[in-house]
Amino acid sequence: MGEQKCIGILTSGGDCAGLNAVIRAVVYRATATYNWKVMGIRQATNGLMSRPPQAIPLNIEKVDSWLTIGGTMLGTTNKGNPFAFPMADGTVRDRSDDIIQGYHQLGLDALIGIGGDGSLAILRKIALEGNLNLVAIPKTIDNDVGVTERSIGFDTAVNIATEALDRLHFTAASHSRVIIVEVMGRDAGHIAISAGIAGGADIILIPEIPYKISQICAKIQERQDRGKTYCLIVVAEAVRTEAGELVMHTNRLGQSRLGGIGQYLADTISECSGAETRVTVLGHTQRGGTPSSLERLIASAFGVAAVDLIAEEKYDCMVSWQQREVVSVPLEDAISKYRPVDFNGTLVKTARGLGICLGD
């Protein structure tokens, strides 16, 4: 068995389905196989900044029912860069050393961080600064972390978007409407193109492929000429206007967020096609709910593999899904290689082969 280790685990960035399944797998492998202790860190790195550090001991009895629960039972945050952390007095302070000290106060021998490229880049910088033993697990519904074919949260998000399209077919047909479904995708169009193909969309717009409104309207007209009086359009939230501008909305706190491209398209398409157009914005619905079976499988495989890497003392690396296998890759490669939709890849070719308009 070797020496008994104490490992920490945290979830960082936006929540998604499958996070609790990862935590459950880590606890099972670490405690049942290696007889290690596992500490679940609350609210991502904020928990390590707190004094005392906010963490709870995890065992099989505690996490056994977590497999099917959405979100993260540990909590998370996607605000406040630890290297420029906003303080109560309005100033910002580098609190990376507080996180390093929190790691040591908990007596951790290693840390498993679950996050997207932004969160993992911050965790890696802290780990290098403090000589911490870090193993990473990729998590993002956008599925754009480098050197992995799948990230936690993606499959469930696609399933939710696909189900929405399944339902909207009927109401679109009943009223002879164009219905635009705006899905998440901060930089990449993986959700849009996957759900669009699976859900039978007629038009799919992703940030990787510039579009022309005239092509979209031509597709709508072509369907009308064939007696198809309705049309389903899927658009990723990061798609720009035809002029190349990002569409943002600002909340009452003055914070800007991606969103609104669906309404922009609805207004523009109505003008050029005369079609009655409606918009459905799925938003955070895509993050919630019960993780799919594939999500649970990959989450479980990632959790087990991450613990095994700690046992082998292989750090500064990330578990990755490649060709139906879990492998280890350098964390630096994962966070430096952004993974967009491949313009010449299988999904784009499939969409075109099915007669789906991509706007170009």
Notes on the protein architecture:
The chain has 360 residues and is of the alpha/beta class. The protein has helices at 19-33, 45-49, 60-63, 96-105, 117-130, 154-175, 190-198, 213-225, 261-273, 293-311, 331-336, 346-353; strands at 6-11, 37-41, 55-58, 85-86, 92-93, 110-115, 134-138, 178-183, 203-205, 231-236, 248-250, 256-258, 277-281, 317-322, 325-330. Strands 3-2-1-6-7-14-15 form a 7-stranded mixed beta sheet, with helices on both faces. A 4-stranded parallel beta sheet has the order 9-10-8-13, sandwiched between helices. The chain has a two-stranded antiparallel ribbon with strand order 4-5. β4 and β5 (92-93) form a beta hairpin.
Number of helices: 12
Gyration radius over CA: 22 Å
Termini separation comes to 58 Å
Helix fraction by DSSP (H/I, runs of at least 4): 25-40%
Spatial sequence of strands, sheet with the most strands? 3-2-1-6-7-14-15
The unreliable regions are none
The strand count comes to 15
Hey, roughly how much beta strand do the residues contain? 15-25%
**Form type:** elongated
Order of helices and strands: EHEHEHEEHEHEHEHEHEEEHEHEEHH
Task: Name the quaternary structure.
Answer: single chain
Write down the overall mean pLDDT: 93
Summarize the biggest pleated sheet: 7 strands, mixed
Q: What class, by secondary structure content?
A: alpha/beta
